[in-house]
Design a protein that fits this description.
The protein is of the alpha+beta class and 350 residues long. The protein contains nine helices and eight strands.
Length: 350
């Protein structure tokens, strides 16, 4: 029996059909539009972003701040800030003057003790190396610190007496205040750089004293060995200079991370270029610590038992050895090659 289904009487579970026997209810499966469901699924499903997260660029320079401004701003009145600023300048100047005299006296005594004992006292070496930086840089620090105090006090005056400051600046108070803030920050950074320079200067002085002590005792002031120590000391100087430079940049609020990243490739090239120089220095150090020959010795250099060259040693320098052959020619041989060869010292044969 065929039945006619009335779509307008459909429900979710059954529908009504008309047949010859009358109305009957038959179950019906709801029609599902798969294309619509697919579209709805797309609309309801979360969208996964494949784009890379945004990278916030690092700031190249950020002001480090001036603690003196906050210290002077803690007073309720401008007069109180001014009195405190004068006290700070007076204490700084007195401390710098007395400190310079003390450091100079102590360093002189340390130098006299070292010269009388002919040894090296580490404590005296530090004090003696600190004398020159303290004598030359402490007065400079005093002037810079005083300028920082005055500049900070101007900022306090601009904040607590805005109308008067604006009148003195001919209506350009905000602009002048911004300039004063930048100037104060620069002076503050300069005062900290003075300390970094003093520390680098002191380290170089300590290094020079230790190298001089080694040359005087271990190498017994032999000229070639002394020149080698001077070369090593020069390399250490460059390391101290680099440390002071990057410390100064950090003190000024400069982000050195991008700079170091940009220097990464250059450092590889420099490292490869300096590898030969460092190898020569290491070979020279080996020759000086355990010398197989000396100036005036007749030597023969062998490689695998075969004679390479022979002659009279004229000089042993930090980077090369100078020979004079039997026919009167002068040969300059790198110490790296000398260390790699077998040495037969004819002059020291029994």
């Amino acid at each position: 029996m065929q039945a006619l289904t009335l779509p307008f009487l459909q429900s979710s579970r059954s529908c009504t059909a008309i047949s010859r026997r009358g109305l009957t209810r038959v179950p019906v499966v709801p029609l599902i539009n798969t294309s619509n469901r697919h579209l709805n699924a797309k609309r309801s499903s979360p969208i996964i972003a494949n784009a890379a997260p945004a990278i916030t660029p690092e700031a190249v320079w950020e002001p480090t701040g001036v603690p003196l401004v906050d210290e002077l701003a803690s007073f309720s009145t401008l007069q109180g800030s001014a009195i405190h600023a004068v006290k700070l300048v007076a204490i700084a100047m007195a401390g710098i003057y007395i400190g310079s005299l003390l450091v100079k006296a102590i360093s002189n005594k340390a130098d006299s003790d070292d010269s009388s004992s002919k040894g090296l006292n580490p404590f005296n070496a530090v004090l003696g190396s600190l004398a020159a930086p303290a004598t030359n840089l402490l007065p400079l620090y005093g002037y810079i610190y005083s300028a920082t105090v005055v500049s900070s006090l101007v900022q306090i005056f601009a904040k607590k007496s805005t109308a008067q400051f604006n009148s003195l600046c001919l209506g350009n108070g905000p602009k002048v205040l911004e300039i004063v803030k930048h100037v104060t920050q620069v002076i503050q950074d300069a005062s900290e750089i003075v300390f970094i320079v003093a520390a680098a200067w002191t380290f170089i002085g300590i290094k020079d004293r230790f190298i001089a002590f080694i040359a005087r005792t271990a190498f017994k002031e032999q000229a070639p060995k002394a020149r080698l120590l001077e070369t090593v000391g020069g390399i250490l100087n460059y390391g101290i200079y680099a440390g002071a430079f990057f410390s100064s940049l950090t003190t000024c609020g400069i982000n050195i991370t991008p700079l170091l990243a940009s220097l990464g490739g250059a450092s590889v090239v420099i490292g490869l270029a300096s590898q030969t120089i460092l190898g020569e220095l290491a070979s020279s150090l080996t020759l000086f610590i355990a010398p197989p020959f000396g100036v005036g010795d007749n030597v023969r250099f062998l490689s695998g038992g075969a004679l390479v060259m022979e002659g009279l040693v004229l000089a042993i320098e930090p980077m090369r050895t100078i020979l004079k052959t039997a026919d009167g020619n002068t040969l300059y041989v790198s110490n790296g090659k000398v260390v790699g060869w077998e040495v037969e010292n004819v002059s020291r044969k029994a």
